[in-house]
Inverse folding.
């Protein structure tokens, strides 16, 4: 009997976010996060034959504003155009000054500035995430993919995949950064909670800690956050993701962080995943949102782990063994030549297929 294809939601609008450069490690460089990433994944899934690719319906901003400060949404909708009017012309727009609390220490809270240049540093926390002419539309399309995949699973599918680009897990309630503008996984989780009135878990397997997702749910008891990632002692974003961070208030105990040592290979990763999945299972979620970063790959230029393509298939199978519906959303992965195979392997594992 031929297995049912896994539904994939992908939008060509992701191409509208196409920065020319990013500033990282005190140097300008070609962006690691570029349109070719999503194109490579989509091409691999289309060629595989086990996936049905669909365009997601367009949604409004209500689901985004259920997670993010509406001011962030308004800013991103107009940031590039405002910058061009006041300062431009330029292709990429990045902050000059960041609204750090120490700037006004002892002087009372700051007020959001009015100039386009200053507002960039009010809403952004780092330098690698340029805003371009099409960024807002691309970010909206990523949310559309996430919501469509969530609705497919709420409608009875066991696994659905959103090819989200830009990614989302670094975006906090009121800040963008780390290549992320809207937190696709958080939007999906809150949407699922509202639709099912039950518990939801977010499992983040990206190499970089999902600081935004953690911040959004840190004090909530209806969404658990479980993350395996490079130890923040050495890995971006450095300031979050320590094992001692377990939630606060009503959310106390609902956050689980598993920092990984450099060189972690397939067997070591699967061993670390086992207790993480046990913590997730103990939360008893009705649905699991997976932030799928495949930048834990041995050949990825942004990581120091050693997971293989076969390891991704094993990882997907281990997550599927929980027996809970899975909404899988794309996050990182920057080894362009291996991206398609790695995502395909993970999804085959999650769907109970051999790869």
């Amino acid at each position: 009997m031929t297995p049912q294809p896994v539904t994939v939601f992908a939008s060509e609008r992701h191409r509208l976010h196409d920065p020319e450069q990013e500033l990282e490690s005190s140097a300008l460089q070609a962006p690691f996060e570029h349109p070719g990433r999503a194109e490579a994944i989509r091409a691999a899934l289309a060629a595989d034959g086990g996936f049905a690719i669909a365009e997601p319906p367009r949604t409004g901003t209500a689901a985004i504003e259920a997670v993010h400060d509406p001011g962030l949404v308004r800013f991103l909708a107009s940031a590039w155009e405002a910058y061009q009017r006041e300062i431009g012309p330029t292709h990429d727009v990045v902050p000059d000054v960041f609204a750090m609390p120490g700037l006004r220490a002892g002087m009372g809270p700051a007020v959001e500035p009015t100039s386009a240049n200053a507002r960039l540093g009010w809403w952004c926390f780092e330098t690698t995430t340029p805003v371009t002419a099409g960024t807002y539309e691309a970010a909206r399309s990523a949310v559309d993919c996430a919501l469509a995949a969530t609705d497919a699973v709420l409608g009875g599918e066991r696994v659905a995949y959103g090819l989200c680009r830009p990614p989302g897990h670094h975006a906090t309630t009121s800040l963008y950064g780390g290549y992320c503008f809207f937190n696709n996984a958080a939007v999906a989780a809150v949407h699922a909670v509202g639709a099912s009135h039950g518990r939801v878990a977010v499992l983040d397997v990206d190499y970089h800690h999902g600081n935004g997702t953690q911040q959004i749910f840190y004090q909530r008891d209806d969404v658990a956050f479980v993350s395996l990632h490079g130890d923040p002692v050495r890995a971006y974003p450095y300031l979050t993701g320590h094992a001692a961070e377990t939630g606060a208030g009503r959310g106390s105990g609902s956050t689980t962080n598993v920092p990984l040592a450099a060189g972690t290979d397939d067997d070591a990763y699967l061993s670390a995943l086992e207790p993480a999945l046990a913590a997730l299972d103990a939360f008893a979620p009705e649905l699991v949102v997976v932030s799928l970063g495949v930048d834990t790959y041995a050949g990825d230029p942004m990581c120091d782990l050693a997971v293989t393509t076969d390891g991704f298939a094993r990882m997907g199978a281990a997550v599927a063994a929980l027996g809970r519906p899975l909404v899988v959303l794309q996050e990182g992965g920057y080894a362009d030549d291996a991206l398609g195979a790695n995502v395909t392997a993970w999804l085959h594992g999650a769907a109970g297929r051999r790869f």
